[in-house]
Fold:
Amino acid sequence: MYPEHVRHAPAARAVEVHQPTPIQPAVVTPAPMVAVHPGSVPAVASIVLPDGRVVTGYAINPMQHEPVAAKPPVSRAAVNVALGGVGFLAVCGGLLLLTTFITALTALITQLITLAAVIFGGYVAVQIFKPAGSKSGNTFHIRKAIFKRNHFNG
Structure:
């Protein structure tokens, strides 16, 4: 269908333009017409398209929907009550989240204070209860009472 590729020298190349071959449409024979009694067939509408073809079909009346019963208008009070309920639920949810956050923050602070007390208390206990020969002579002032080398000087 297409010519074989042939290499040419660069100066001798010629430009060939290949146009596609149009495909011929298949020949369709129309269906034979069947005679129908005119009293049983509804009215037929024909339309001529811009290219000359004629389209024929039955006219179909648009479907008529049943009228919907008119709904009574919603009162402003009912709308306000509904919106107030939604707002109340939103505020309750926000307050619940806020109290949960405050509770978690309080627990965290309590744990940090307890951790600091345990670490500091352990350090003090190690310094106070060391054997007498390994003491550094550090003095700890706790509520105006002085502990030095296991002796209480109040």
The helical segments are 76-128. The chain has a mean pLDDT of 76.
